Amino acid sequence: MDRMEKIVFKTLEEQSKLISRSFKEMGVAITAYFKGDDETLQKSVLKIRNHETQSIKYKHQNLETVAKAVSIYRSDFFRLVMKMNDVQANQAGSTVRLGNIRYSPRPEDEMIPKFQQLVEVFIQMGDTLHDLMRKLGDDMHSAASFCNKLDEIEDNVDNIYRDLHGHLYNRADIPLRIIMQYLSVAKHIEEACDSCASVGDSVRIILATH
After folding, report:
1. DSSP secondary structure letters along 103-169
2. pTM
3. Do residues 77 and 8 make contact, with C-beta atoms less than 8 angstroms apart?
4. Domains of the chain
5. How many CB atoms are located within 10 Å of the residue 53 CB?
6. What is the pLDDT of residues 146-186, one digit of tens each?
7. CA contacts within 13 A on the Cβ side of 93
8. How far apart are CA 48 and CA 192, in angstroms?
9. How many CB atoms are closer than 10 A to CB 3?
10. Which of 148, 168, 171, 190 is the most exposed place for a label (fewest CB within 10 A)?
């Protein structure tokens, strides 16, 4: 592992820590939303936006590091850095959209446990991504198992998302505009998880060159 790789992996670990915190904060936000606690929801939105701002700084730092490196593997690292940025961007998008919904579902609404299930797996994805980035800087060759775990979680997310998606499309009792907002929140969560799996694919490419 050369100096550039060590620097990038360390920064990615810090970035993944922010992402994991953001995913957990989404759990707080979704719970607050369904309880009608707008104050807690808006606090969570602000925290996640702050995490996003710091994450962008890490991205720029890594891009500068990779750009200065003289290595045939630079494109692999560029890809990894940009995929990490996609994760944070999609996650922040889901929370901001949740904060803009002006609708109060009943406490017994059937969509609530479906959303909660999606977010629970979402949080698991964030923790696994953080574990992967820690392994890259510590024991690179054991990182592949975490890439596989990301794929497994993504499959689970896809199944939960499809179930929620179908449920929402059949809800004639909720205004269409609100349905579309809920779908947008769920889609951004699903895309953030897709981006996590793409990070795993980028890591596999780097592992194959070492």
Report:
1. ----TT-THHHHHHHHHHHHHHHHHHHHHHHHHHHH-GGGTHHHHHHHHHHHHHHHHHHHHHHHHHH
2. 0.92
3. yes
4. 3-208 (1.20.58.220)
5. 12
6. 999 999 999 999 999 999 999 999 999 999 999 999 999 99
7. 18
8. 14
9. 9
10. 148
